[in-house]
Here is the input.
Amino acid sequence: MNGIFVTGFWGSGKTTAGGYMAADALSRGMRVAYIANDIGPENIDLARISRRFPQVPAEDLSNACIGCDGLEQFYPIVQ
Here is the structure.
């Protein structure tokens, strides 16, 4: 399984870039999922992706650090 991790400062365009990459890959027939890992009770990025790119399957991994305890949530999402 291939994956792309997009990181950067707040407001740097990660959500927009990730949405366009996912939509493009989906249009090429690739299996795609947008997994938003937000450290907070509300996942604002996931809501924006779902509105702007409704064709892209999006999953929420909120309130968790994917490198710490978030792996328990991450594995079922990618399978």
Notes: The first strand starts at residue 34 and ends at 36.
